[in-house]
Write a structure and sequence with these properties.
Layout (H helix, E strand, L loop, with lengths): L1 H11 L3 H7 L3 H7 L8 H11 L5 E6 L7 H20 L4 E5 L10 H18 L3 E3 L7 H12 L5 E6 L5 H8 L5 E5 L14 H20 L4 E5 L3 H14 L7 E5 L4 H9 L3 E8 L4 H9 L5 H9 L2
Parallel strand pairs: 1-2, 1-8, 2-3, 3-4, 4-5, 5-6, 6-7, 7-8
Helix pairs in contact: 1-12, 5-6, 6-7, 9-10
Amino acid sequence: MASLARKTLLRLSKSRWLAEHVMRRRFVLRAVKKFMPGEEVDDALDAAAGLAPARLGTLLTKLGENLTAESEATEVRDHYLAVLDQIVARRLDAHVSVKPTQLGLDFSERHCAEHLDRLAAKAQQCGTILWIDMEDSSYVDRTLDLYRGVRSRYPNVGLAMQAYLRRTPKDLGSLLALKPTIRLVKGAYAEPPAVAYPDKPDVDRAYFDLAVEMLGAARDGNALPVFGTHDIGLIQRIVARATELGVTNGRYEIHMLYGIRMADQKRLAGEGRVVKTLISYGKSWFPWYMRRLAERPANVWFVAKSMVVR
């Protein structure tokens, strides 16, 4: 049942009609507030400042993907350049995270690479990390190529990788020579079973196996692993393995989303773990929001009811 609910929500995430009809409804906006503080960048920056006393760092990401014009991609690049200036001005422990299709990957890999280089240079100047998000499986090869290119010039660049993709162990192995910074997530796109594990136990198993490999690389000084998951049981197993391997706090990180398990985030930070909260903002939140709900299929009844009740 949970798998069916997840598949349904992921299909709905691609519906432009649904997005246009529900995004401005008040009850939906109230529900979205659970996962993001607001649509404007100042909302995200204020939230980041508010988390600092709890020793929570942040990642900031503007929602929106699959842009179709170079002018739009340039506008996104310039937006993030300004955000990096704001991070410095506010003295925030914050990074930015960007999707390659926000920077024009769908129509020009060269321009996308140029935009990433500009952002990586700025992030390095500001003393932060530029994170490159991973999108669906059709983008993996191009995203890996982009990461290898920009990483060869700027060491302050991280990459998200998805544990549910069957190819990820091989891809991770191919990157270890770069001494990469990798954020491992479970994966939130609709993929065929031949490409991604469809069942949660298999995804959890793949995630832990990849985490152990990343911790081994961290022990040898060959990677900075970041574990992006809200699965507290899985986090506890990873922390225990890190202790067994002698990988101390600060040589790995834990990332979670704004509004989810905030008490656990603060507890982990209080225990000395490096914890960062991913804060999303922007007006193009519908596909992202539906993917977040798909990670918690128990919410499907609430969502379905909300969409039909005026």
